[in-house]
Write a structure and sequence with these properties.
single chain; alpha+beta; elongated; Arc Repressor Mutant, subunit A; three-stranded antiparallel beta sheet; about 110 residues
Length: about 110
């Protein structure tokens, strides 16, 4: 449970930054990409891109592999599953609460 909460926190922390979200968006449309190609549209330094990639890697949202001197990055869709399950659980609880509130309001409206 604690490890799962840490993983969910890492995912949301990674997704909180617009540059990292942009990187994931680019990866979702391109499949695998070299770090240099991935960094081109962002006006930040190579070390800054590396830090963003480390955060995404720590959150298990990307996979990195080396091909000679080139680092290739691929998005890991399964990395979002913990966060998706957490959000679904919250949504189910909210729906239950709203349904309960709606039923209570209906009962109070009846004379």
């Amino acid at each position: 449970m604690v490890n799962n909460q840490r993983q969910i926190t890492a995912i949301f922390a990674a997704l909180a930054d617009p540059t990292r979200r942009g990187i994931l968006l680019r990866l979702s449309s391109s499949g695998e990409s070299a770090v240099t190609a991935l960094a081109k549209p962002f006006r930040i330094s190579a070390p800054a891109i590396s830090r963003h990639l480390r955060v995404l890697e720590h959150a298990r949202l990307i996979h990195r592999r080396r091909d000679g001197r080139e680092h290739l990055i691929r998005a890991r869709s399964e990395g979002l599953k913990d966060a998706q399950q957490w959000m679904a659980q919250c949504a189910a609880g909210w729906e239950f609460s709203f349904d309960t509130l709606e039923n209570l309001l209906r009962k109070e409206k009846k004379p």
